[in-house]
Write a structure and sequence with these properties.
391 residues, alpha+beta, FAD/NAD(P)-binding domain, 2 domains, seven-stranded mixed β-sheet, 12 helices, globular, binds flavin-adenine dinucleotide
Length: 391
């Protein structure tokens, strides 16, 4: 949606296909980091964006690991325009982008229209096949962009080789009501269990990572064990954990972490999770996808305006975004190993290594994490023009 908006803003004809009838899906997380807010600022949209319903602006991100409470991020130390993160559900975010994009006559969005395959001619992708309530359709285009997430149909059909980085856990996703005096911690880990929380106003969106191999066994044991695990990590849930009546009150979200070895082939490029599926760690995936979109628009607006995109133009996108992606995935894997992986399934109290605890007393780890996650490595800046301003 962001790439569609940026290209339409630069005067390029764009058609975005979205398979669902609305954006009311609950599977992507809400963490809009300073990197994305910076892009909104550069686009002149920040004030309008912040008028959209969202849960507070968070500067300090705290977690409890075993007995230690640590500061995962202190965004007030940043030099970006916004020194906070916004918790905004993605349906609000996507609705906002779609509304802004519709101001441009070259932007077209077809909801309830699913890409089902690619059209290839002489080794070049020249369009997509799809289906909508009105029936099957074919769309021809100078360039097809696969931005259809971690289960991307476009990348599956492209034949581009995938490198599986491996994700040992999936996530159990559930809601528990939120009380005004609940602690403001976003992550809890101890004794082989972890819990991450997103503030949605009157409820917490809760995620419990669980080893893929153990989920069937957990379900067989019944909901009581999961309830007990939640209360052990975050005792304030004791008076409401019964809201989880049975397993029907939970969703199982599949996590995958992988990346394409090559993000493109003639006539096609993948970005966001379609190019590199991200784990939930650090709540960084949507922000990385936005960074990809900004980089892709900066590189593609000129060639698309001239009606031809070369293999070299597409390769430039991967060269620009591959390093930040790999490094972020590596940092996510390290955090997962250090915190949750250290004992998912074990009963031993989680204790951060002494060297980590010592370092946590300085601002160095916070500054390093600040650099990698909220700002992003190699932050992108909007360089594409706005045709409405030029007119
Ligand atoms: C459990 C879990 C929690 C997470 N929490 C966070 C978090 O808090 N913060 C964060 O930043 N990241 C989080 N992530 C990662 C984040 O969800 C992804 O990195 C991010 O959504 C990628 O954005 P995207 O635009 O590439 O893909 P998506 O957000 O997945 O968007 C893809 C879009 O394409 C549509 N689509 C899919 N297939 C088709 C098709 N065939 N035709 C047409 N449309 C199609 C989908 O409906 C969707 O709207 C989490 C991931 C998981 C697994």
């Amino acid at each position: 949606m962001m790439l569609g908006y940026l290209l339409a803003r630069a005067g390029i004809e764009v058609l975005v296909l979205e398979k669902h009838a609305d954006f009311l899906r609950d599977f992507r997380g809400d963490t809009v980091h300073p990197s994305t807010l910076e892009v909104m600022h550069e686009l002149g949209l920040l004030d309008e964006f912040l008028k959209r319903p969202h849960q507070k602006q968070v500067s300090q991100i705290r977690a409890r690991i075993g007995r230690d409470e640590i500061l995962l991020g202190d965004l007030s130390l940043l030099s970006t325009h916004c020194r906070f993160m916004v918790m905004m559900p993605q349906w609000e975010f996507l609705d906002f982008l779609a509304e802004q994009a519709r101001r441009y006559p070259t932007f077209h969005l077809r909801m309830e229209t699913e890409a089902t395959g690619l059209i290839e001619e002489d080794g070049r992708i020249v369009g997509v096949r799809g289906k909508s309530p009105a029936g099957p359709l074919e769309v021809r285009a100078t360039l097809v962009v696969g931005a259809d997430g971690r289960n991307s149909v476009v990348r599956d059909c492209s034949g581009l080789p995938i490198e599986d980085v491996g994700a040992p856990t999936d996530v159990l996703w559930m809601r528990l009501s939120r009380h005004a005096d609940d602690p403001e911690l976003f992550f809890y880990a101890d004794r082989g269990k972890a819990l991450f929380l997103t503030d949605r106003g009157d409820y917490w969106q809760c995620g419990v990572p669980a080893p893929k191999a153990a989920i069937a066994e957990m379900q067989a044991k019944g909901i009581e064990e999961l309830r007990a695990a939640i209360v052990e990590l975050a005792p304030f849930f004791e008076n409401r954990v019964e809201e989880l009546r049975d397993w029907n009150d939970l969703k199982l979200l599949t996590v995958r972490v992988d990346r394409l070895r090559q993000w493109h082939r003639p006539g096609l490029v993948c970005i966001g999770d379609a190019a590199h599926a991200m784990s939930p760690v650090g709540g960084v995936g949507i922000n990385l996808a936005i960074q990809d979109a900004v980089a892709a628009a900066n590189i593609l607006a000129g060639p698309l305006g001239e009606g031809a995109v070369s293999a070299e133009d597409l390769a430039k996108i991967q060269r620009r975004r591959s390093f930040p992606t790999r490094l972020t995935q590596t940092v996510q894997a390290l955090i997962q190993k250090q915190i949750a992986g250290r004992g998912l399934g074990s009963r031993k109290p989680t204790r951060l290594p002494w060297i980590v605890r010592l370092m946590e007393r300085t601002t160095l780890p916070v500054k390093l994490r600040n650099r990698v996650i909220p700002v992003g490595i190699r932050p992108e800046h909007v360089k594409t023009p706005d045709v409405l301003k030029a007119a």
